[in-house]
Amino acid sequence: xxxxxxxxxxxxxxxxxxxxxxxxxxxxxxxxxxxxxxxxxxxxxxxxxxxxxxxxxxxxxxxxxxxxxxxxxxxxxxxxxxxxxxxxxxxxxxxxxxxxxxxxxxxxxxxxxxxxxxxxxxxxxxxxxxxxxxxxxxxxxxxxxxxxxxxxxxxxxxxxxxxxxxxxxxxxxxxxxxxxxxxxxxxxxxxxxxxxxxxxxxxxxxxxxxxxxxxxxxxxxxxxxxxxxxxxxxxxxxxxxxxxxxxxxxxxxxxxxxxxxxxxxxxxxxxxxxxxxxxxxxxxxxxxxxxxxxxxxxxxxxxxxxxxxxxxxxxxxxxxxxxxxxxxxxxxxxxxxxxxxxxxxxxxxxxxxxxxxxxxxxxxxxxxxxxxxxxxxxxxxxxxxxxxxxxxxxxxxxxxxxxxxxxxxxxxxxxxxxxxxxxxxxxxxxxxxxxxxxxxxxxxxxxxxxxxxxxxxxxxxxxxxxxxxxxxxxxxxxxxxxxxxxxxxxxxxxxxxxxxxxxxxxxxxxxxxxxxxxxxxxxxxxxxxxxxxxxxxxxxxxxxxxxxxxxxxxxxxxxxxxxxxxxxxxxxxxxxxxxxxxxxxxxxxxxxxxxxxxxxxxxxxxxxxxxxxxxxxxxxxxxxxxxxxxxxxxxxxxxxxxxxxxxxxxxxxxxxxxxxxxxxxxxxxxxxxxxxxxxxxxxxxxxxxx
Length: 690
Ligand code: GAL
Known about the structure:
Blueprint: H1 5-9, E1 21-26, H2 33-46, E2 50-53, H3 58-61, E3 62-64, E4 67-68, H4 71-82, E5 86-90, H5 98-103, H6 130-147, E6 153-157, H7 172-186, H8 189-195, H9 223-251, E7 257-258, E8 260-261, H10 272-275, E9 283-285, H11 294-308, E10 314-318, H12 337-347, E11 350-355, H13 381-395, E12 403-404, E13 409-412, H14 415-421, H15 433-446, E14 451-454, E15 465-468, H16 476-487, E16 491-495, H17 517-520, E17 522-529, E18 535-537, E19 543-545, E20 547-553, E21 558-563, E22 573-580, E23 583-588, H18 593-605, E24 622-628, E25 632-639, E26 645-647, E27 653-656, E28 665-667, E29 672-678
Parallel strand pairs: 1-2, 1-11, 2-5, 5-6, 6-7, 8-9, 9-10, 10-11, 13-14, 13-15, 15-16, 16-23
Antiparallel strand pairs: 3-4, 12-24, 17-20, 18-19, 21-22, 22-23, 24-25, 25-29, 26-28, 27-29
């Protein structure tokens, strides 16, 4: 769908064939009219073919309750259309204007301790406010009606990063909506009292109106109340998305609707696996956080977005050409980063590469955030790199529309386990779900093994090996699925603090790992987390941190792959694997980190017959992904290092990159190459357990 967005509507350049989308958020309202013509000229020079317009334009579109001003936007839309540039038009509802917050302050969110979130920044609105919704949907209707037939319009962009700043609202509106949500979930107060375990600390409810969001309390709020509030908050924003979408679909049923997700941002409040089906195509935003795993994290984010999108192409709505403005120190990108970062998203299924933003602001909170046209102007390395990337993306047009080819290894990423596993009053407050999952991913990259992030909504049986780090919440149905997976030949790998609770956050009794105890053939009587900085040695020369378990093997088919050598568990099993049916289920009871997992993984992957598809010399130096189209297979090779890496022995037509006389590809530092192979080649998909 994304690859045909532009060809559907044509534009001044006529009907284009499918291709990759290239562009940015465009905020012309920050600039005088005289700059707009130059913008379009430079966009054409850079190969930009789509921009997102109007994201923060509410105050300029509606000057007062009944004063509308669309003239400037008409002009921008016309200008872009004449320039052959499509528009992903925002519904402009992300930041309500001062006249509205002054007239209707009841739309402002409230924090857990009862403070008002005042206007002055953005996204100061309650997801459940009926008043906000009324005003916002009126604006959406106006925009949709006005631009329904505008030839530049190719997609709708609902709000912006829903929940980035306002996912948790504890207002009275939220309390009312939370009660309605709970009634729908539990029907009776008895069921709610059971689920929330209200026998504890005298919390028994006798009337729905007694129930509140988990506002500032004297001690730890009820854990299931917290969990349900997180679920509710994600659902409340999803409902809001649906409300805007309903208006758009009513007026422009032919125009696809999206909204930009943030699958790996600081906010974990939105369950995007659950939101994905609400949009016509999935969009994501990603910003590099400098650090030792920064590009692994980028790859992880892109891979997870692909999982959320069901393996179909998705839209990179925002990333940065260079520095951002919101980190403690905002590091500029090095030469080659701009292209490599963008192409790594494409490698994982992005059919669109867009930046925040087109022209770097001269004023406002984001004036030091990079853009496609920096403060220095078009005569700059950034703009030259932007133009070069535009040309590269044009070369890669044949990739557009291709889907991800399933890998043999899957890594399960589950929002419910993320939420539940990191709650307060747990054995450790140091557990970091995302980091544990990322470490497994980094270890696979270090071994040159392709892996797919998967969600519990995906087909878990598709992969020969399924790694489920910290799968804390395992309802009975998921336990059955995983058991069947292993019995039918899949190789499940899970870790400490997995299988512990059901969907109500109630502990599975009888010993850990609870719901997975029988499948794993082990039993743990008591958690043994480690203090910060404390570590334990294993007898396979790896080192564990964060956690250890006192494991007893309960099944003769369970083998011990490694034992603790030091610490209170010395001599006891640390890593186990139980054969079951034609598959197996392995358990890693401590946090091994990237180095430890890299050492351990070959032993876990061995029984599944999984190995790298890369030539031995470049494993770990190069990341590979595969996208599969109707008649071709595209192999991406991404240089993960700051050195030149030569890849030989890979066949296929070189779509991107320069082969030497022997056909080897020399990848400069941070460089990307793409090979096109005939569609029939490669590993068989669906190679897992059925
Ligand atoms: C995103 C947001 C953009 C811009 C960007 C800066 O979260 O959607 O509007 O603020 O961050 O990195």
